[in-house]
Each structure stands twice: as C-alpha cells, then as structure tokens.
Specification:
92 residues, single chain, mainly alpha, 5 helices
Length: 92
C-alpha cells in the first residue's frame, strides 16, 4: 500500500532487541505519520470511535493502530502512552 514496505511489529521489536536497543532508547521515530496522528488524538482524550469518525476509518482500524503503537513502544496501556508521548514531544 502506498508503495511502502511493511515489517510486522514482532519482527520490528525483534530487530530492536537484536540491535541491543532498550525501551528507553526507542522514540516516536518508528511510528508512521498515521500512528502519530492517532497518538495525538488519544492524548486529547478521544475514544476509538471518535478518532475513527474524525479520520474516516473503521473503529477496528483505529484499535489496530492503537495496539501497534503500544507494541512498538513497548507500553502497556493508554496512560503510559500519553505519558510517553508528552515526555518524548510526540504531541507537538
């Protein structure tokens, strides 16, 4: 899609671990522009349904993006994501 390459989250995280990168060395750089957009909406308190309506996506697609974001950043929940986003200037 969009002539971009796709690497699964599992392979992506295995690569980070293989290279010896730790969670605190990861940044928002590995997030796609769409994922960064969704992070911003999450940080603004929007639900998956509200984000889906705003971005003309299905709720399921937004949920998948949210799960992928958490997996890429090795975070456990939305609160940790919002904290991480603020600390790493992903909301600007």
């Amino acid at each position: 899609m969009n002539n971009e390459k796709y690497i699964s989250n599992k392979i992506n995280m295995n690569l980070y671990h293989h290279l010896g990168l730790k969670k605190n060395q990861l940044t928002g750089n590995q997030l796609t522009p769409r994922e960064l957009e969704i992070v911003q909406h999450i940080a603004n308190g929007m639900t998956n349904q509200e984000i889906a309506a705003r971005l003309f996506l299905s709720t399921s697609t937004v949920d998948t993006h949210r799960k992928n974001i958490l997996a890429k950043l090795e975070l456990k929940n939305t609160a940790a994501l919002v904290k991480y986003a603020g600390e790493n200037k992903l909301l600007e």
